[in-house]
From TrEMBL, chain A:
<dbReference type="Pfam" id="PF08669">
    <property type="entry name" value="GCV_T_C"/>
</dbReference>
<protein>
    <recommendedName>
        <fullName>aminomethyltransferase</fullName>
        <ecNumber>2.1.2.10</ecNumber>
    </recommendedName>
</protein>
<dbReference type="GO" id="GO:0008483">
    <property type="term" value="F:transaminase activity"/>
</dbReference>
<feature type="domain" description="GCVT N-terminal">
    <location>
        <begin position="9"/>
        <end position="257"/>
    </location>
</feature>
<dbReference type="InterPro" id="IPR006223">
    <property type="entry name" value="GcvT"/>
</dbReference>
<dbReference type="GO" id="GO:0006546">
    <property type="term" value="P:glycine catabolic process"/>
</dbReference>
<dbReference type="GO" id="GO:0005960">
    <property type="term" value="C:glycine cleavage complex"/>
</dbReference>
<dbReference type="GO" id="GO:0032259">
    <property type="term" value="P:methylation"/>
</dbReference>
<keyword id="KW-0032">Aminotransferase</keyword>
UniProtKB/TrEMBL annotation, chain B:
<dbReference type="InterPro" id="IPR000089">
    <property type="entry name" value="Biotin_lipoyl"/>
</dbReference>
<dbReference type="InterPro" id="IPR017453">
    <property type="entry name" value="GCV_H_sub"/>
</dbReference>
<keyword id="KW-0450">Lipoyl</keyword>
<dbReference type="InterPro" id="IPR011053">
    <property type="entry name" value="Single_hybrid_motif"/>
</dbReference>
<feature type="modified residue" description="N6-lipoyllysine">
    <location>
        <position position="59"/>
    </location>
</feature>
<dbReference type="InterPro" id="IPR002930">
    <property type="entry name" value="GCV_H"/>
</dbReference>
<comment type="subunit">
    <text>The glycine cleavage system is composed of four proteins: P, T, L and H.</text>
</comment>
<dbReference type="GO" id="GO:0005960">
    <property type="term" value="C:glycine cleavage complex"/>
</dbReference>
<dbReference type="InterPro" id="IPR003016">
    <property type="entry name" value="2-oxoA_DH_lipoyl-BS"/>
</dbReference>
Amino acid sequence: MTELKRTPLHSLHVELGGKLVDFAGWEMPVQYPLGIMGEHKQCREKAALFDVSHMGQVILRGENLGEKLEALCPQAYATLKPGKARYGFFTNADGGIMDDLIVSNAGDYYFVVVNAALRHQDIPHMRDNLDGVEVIEIFDRALVAVQGPAAENVVGDLCPAARDLKFMETTEAPINGVDCRISRLGYTGEDGYEISIPEDKAIEVSKAFLAHEDCEAAGLGARDSLRLEAGLCLYGNDIDQSTSPIEASLGWAIQKRRKEEGGFPGADRVQKELAEGPAKKLVGIKPDGRAPARQGVEIQCAEGNTIGQITSGVFGPTVGGPVAMGYVSKGHGEPGETVNLIIRGKPQPAQIVALPFVKQNYKR
Amino acid sequence: MATYYSEEHEWLTVEGDTATLGITKHAAEQLGDVVFVEQQEAGDEFEKGGEIGVIESVKAASELYAPVDGEITEVNEALADNPGALNEDPEGEAWIYKIKIADAAQLEDLMDLDGYKALIG
């Protein structure tokens, strides 16, 4: 058995009573004694701190970084202004999504965050394809997310510069005398920050956040239910190498110029699906009853034909009932459509709904 | 009246040939917040090792396996509206079924409290 990797916050998780599990080869807290439900509500109502140091942090240095990234991604990174961050993805030649990521223009370099499980793919991908760009994978910094309506106070009390950021803005500023990269974004649907901290100061800074009366630690379990209520995709569940951005209802993340001009891997498929509609698309699904519909559950239309599959499903603590996402074939997927989910062999009625399940609460 | 424990983390309090069945406090802690319980109906018969229900937490579904052969005589209906009771009082109020035991000899394969404590460490 390969030894699980540990983040710089590992001893803090143990100290806080976190239940540690294997997540993409990392020993990560799925929950703390408060529990997934309590941690989820903590984040929606006050603020929660998540260790996301398992994700890959990458620095890109070189000339014309934005233009060069446009050869790998359908996003308009050439026009990404200094101090701004933008969600995007690498596409493959078939128009599938290789990984999703956040790219920040840090001024004299670019800062990229990729999924933990795909670090080994993304780093060589950038090294092989970004000509004249230095691709530096960072191993000596933690990444911590502070999310929730009180996040501005939790982070701003220690770092006034954080208050001045708007959604999808990034800056470098000291916290407790340590230089951190602070970005106002996240994966919960709430206002909040992701903060890159030198590893030797990560516990000290995290404890300073947790010392705020409105901030509690939360694990990956709550992170999953929060992101699903917010209608955000999880790579490996809702999107993968075979699904296109248009199928995944991620057209909003491709800027107009790139939709028109193409020039990224798989642009033919993306442009064709934009014009003609995709063969299937990702939609929100709300089961009528209390039984959660998990990944892999079959979706049938009212007439009883199979039209797709659930890709993510949890009990949504804020919604107070099960929530799910899944793909349905062309001709289906309008909000309000009634479908059946085949859970343990029995059809359970559900509605197609518009995403998100819980209104996003970003500071624009 | 004696209480037995299974390796699947169920408890079974036996009186004559009937018993009350639930999950242990340890199991409830491992599951986390229970959000849904799928129960079978009174009158349903089952065999040892067979699936007799599903307990869902926020993140995952866990099957409930029968510790002995028998028949469901009563279902704790309160769990449908209040599945969270399984976290609060799994070894009391939040029992899952009352059952009729078909073969009392199978109880010998189960553990007593000391044996169960040793299992969960």
